[in-house]
Amino acid sequence: MGPRAVICGNRGVLRCGLLSAFSLFSQLSMAIKAVIFEVNWTVWSGQLDPQKWGKGSSAKSKPEDNLERSSWDKNLIYDISDKSCEIRLLRDIPFIIQDIKKRGIALGVVSKDSTRAMCDRALYFFEYPDENQRDRPIIKAVNYDETGSADYSSIFKNIMGWASAQGSEILFFDSNEESLKVNRELGVRVEIVSHEAGVTWETYERALEKNDGGGGGKDRPPKLGKLLGEGKFSKVYEAADDKNAVIKILKDWTTEKNRRLLQIYDVIKTGRPFDPGNKTEDHYPLMVALELRNLSIIKELEEPKPEDFSGWFKMKKIVGTHIWMHPLYKKHPFSVDFQEFVRACMHLAMDSIEEIVKKYGVEHCDAHFKNVVFDFDGNKPVRARLLDWGIAVKMKWDGSQYIRGDDFLIIVPPYQDIRAGVKYSPSSFRRYWIAWMVKTEYDALWSRRAITETDGKAFLQDLDWWYRRQ
After folding, report:
1. How far apart are CA 446 and CA 367, in angstroms?
2. Partners of residue 108 on adjacent β-strands
């Protein structure tokens, strides 16, 4: 049977690849987990004094409504009722905030002397460049907004809880030496800056050097380049100093998660499976541990060694084109052109799965189109490369059969039966994975309403044509 033409109600075309049932994302675990700024005289020169701002004859009733950003200088805010009242964003602050966010460190602001509403308005007007060099309001980068309160002890206790941090893992910039109290009481690392200069790039960098061991060591990743993608649990960057590598930084990665990951890795590196049982807190560390092990086995992990992991890793950059970038993928899902093109891509992905199993003993278990890139020669796909090794298990090729290992997977994608010890002949192994790829792809198509679910399920009743290579 050849590719089938099916009449269906929805003729929309899916323009992007299938999303994973679960993609493993990974943020930076560092000695410094949060950087906090007192805003007055530290982030900006001057003070948002509610006793002085909004007191002119034309003042509006809400103090914050009297703040206006200059039309000729975006780093200047003045009081519309009394233009002698003004604050200016300090020169290096936008780039310092950009660096903090790139490093995956939480950002906080506090103020004893200004109201939250006034500070929030100023932080909305003032901007910083995000990872794509687009100007964004600073307030959008703030994780902990504790302006308008003079009780620093309570504020920093709260931040320590929110950030899952010890006092020594928080860096606080202020121009008032009274703030040293939180160092004495809670161990917060306090940097006192001058009223005149506030926080400069030099003082910021020096503080990191002093309090966080500088730019080297296993706790800090190599220099980050362009942001390539971001998910709920991680960001992926180009490596600024290595065009052939990328860096993945985990979000919400704590000292406790790191400690547990290292314990789990000590088990799985011996070849034994790790079963977390009902301990859901072990799920995330286990998935990261498996990804590190798998990348290490297939020689795509560059640094650090899994035993030295601290929330980031650098891996080989896999070059290729996603299928949805090719014009043939934009054809209707039930057209002959689409099916023949997709079938060819699936068999190339299967070639890559088998090659890795035979060479390294690892079976990729999530090779949907988001996790595969291709080389194309015109309309002909010629090679596939696999991405994202978070969902993969050990597998042995004994010369005649593929034998699945006993790794414990937290996430088992739909339509799969990943049982330990299952044996496959080469033909049955290919049929198993091609069937999964087709079902997963067409499931995504009807979930995106490119086809109807009824038509999609009817289409999947007979997959014999898909098993035959062109």
Report:
1. 19
2. 36, 144
Known binding residues: 248
User: Cβ(367)–Cβ(433) under 8 Å?
Assistant: yes
pTM exceeds 0.85 for this model: no
Encoded tokens for 86: 């003004």
Taking 60 as the threshold, does the pLDDT of residue 272 lie above it? yes
Residue pair 123/138 in contact (Cβ under 8 Å)? The answer is: yes
Instruction: Report the candidate in 370, 109, 406 with the shortest Cα–Cα distance to residue 271.
Output: 406
Identify the domain boundary among 282, 299, 316.
316
Per-residue model confidence (pLDDT) at position 337 = 93
Residue 385 confidence class, pLDDT cut points 50, 70, 90: very high
- Judge residue 391's burial from the number of C-beta atoms within 10 Å of its C-beta, 0-12 exposed, 13-18 middle, 19 or more buried: buried
C-beta neighbour count of 101 within 10 angstroms: 20
Helices (H), 147-254: 152-162, 181-186, 201-212
For residue 6, the 8-state DSSP code is -
Using an 8 Å Cβ cutoff, are 275 and 13 in contact? no
Q: What is the spatial distance between Cα 70 and Cα 59, in angstroms, rounded to a whole number?
A: 17
H-assigned helices in 298-450: 336-360, 426-447
Residue 279 makes CB contacts below 8 A (sequence gap 6+) with none
Do 72 and 182 reside in the same domain of the chain?
Answer: yes
Same domain, 296 and 358: no
- Residue ranges for the known binding site for ATP are 248
Residues 342 and 321: their CA atoms lie apart, in Å, by: 14
